[in-house]
Amino acid sequence: MKYCIATNTVSVPTVPVALSGDFCENLRLAAQYGYQAIEIHTPDVSLLDINGLLRTMKETHMEIATLGTGPIFGRYGLHLCDEDPYRQNLLFEKVQPFIDAAAALSSRVTIGSIKGNLQSDRNRIEGMSMLGRSIHRLDQYAEEKGIILLLEATNRYENNVLNTARDLRQFIENNHLTHTLALMDVFHMNIEEADLLTALDTIQPVLGHIHIADNNRMYPGAGCFPFSPFIEKLRIIGYDGFLSLECLPLPDSETAAVQAARFFHHSFDCIR
Ligand code: LER
Ligand code: MN
User: Fold this and answer.
1) Contact at 8 Å (CB) between 74 and 114?
2) In which domain, by residue range, is 61 found?
């Protein structure tokens, strides 16, 4: 199991990112805390210093597990359920540089919040086909660049599409997404899944990444999410990808990052 932490440039108490600052510094700090990788969350990858990041990755033996695209939705309001072809194109053009940067950094690209929402009066079957076509276009570009997309199941209060492991697996298979794997986030799973362990069985063939927080979205151990059976199930299904901390920077960034690293090492190292 490899441990990862989501990072951005500026800490916001309501945004579930525990480590903030310059991304090269974030790599160094995360390495000191005991992580093997970071996620980068930024609305604009053109501002990334790719060479500086590559140098720091080498120096720290760290990876950049994925580039989160959520800030594109937060900053520009662009999303993949949009019916307007002009805005769909704008979004495609905003995600393309993420895929290019991921290729340069041997990373991947998360498709989470930018799924957006289907309008409530929209025919759902047609809406889902449109979403399938939009993500297929990104999947093909990811194939061209030789990278993997991580499509995230998010809870119903954030997105009204692809909320569960079952939805996600069917969507990936039905749309023949060959360069897309599933990202499961325990915070969203705790809201949406009827049974956490069955959900892991369902998603196992396409599972590529896991976001970790407690049920209150604080660092794991600060709430009441049932981690013990979940961890045991990860062992049983043979998951050996990243466990990535995506939690609120509470009570402060350092405490969240350090406590979560302790939790990861205590809970998961013993099942290696
Ligand atoms: C948002 O709630 C979330 O979990 C992010 O990972 C989506 O990009
Ligand atoms: Mn997440």
Assistant:
1) no
2) 2-271
Q: What is the largest CA-CA distance in the chain?
A: 53
Contact 189, 196 (CB under 8 A): yes
Q: Identify whether the C-beta of residue 206 lies closer than 8 Å to the C-beta of residue 181.
A: yes
Distance of CA 105 to the CA centre of its chain: 16
Give 210: exposed, middle or buried? Use CB within 10 Å, 0-12, 13-18, 19+: buried
Q: Find tokens 């350090």 and name the residue.
A: 258
**pLDDT of 271 higher than 90:** no
User: Which residues have CB under 6 Å of ligand 1?
Assistant: 68, 70, 110, 112-113, 152, 154, 158, 185, 211, 246
Tell me, what CATH number does 105's domain have? 3.20.20.150
Question: Domain count of the chain?
Answer: 1
Higher pLDDT, 258 or 43: 258
Average pLDDT of the chain, as a whole number: 96
Q: Which residues pair with 244 in a beta bridge?
A: 4, 211
What span, in angstroms and rounded, lies between the C-alpha atoms of 248 and 257?
Answer: 10
Which residue of 17, 158, 244 sits with most ligand 1 atoms within 8 Å of its CB, as the best mutation to test the pocket? 158
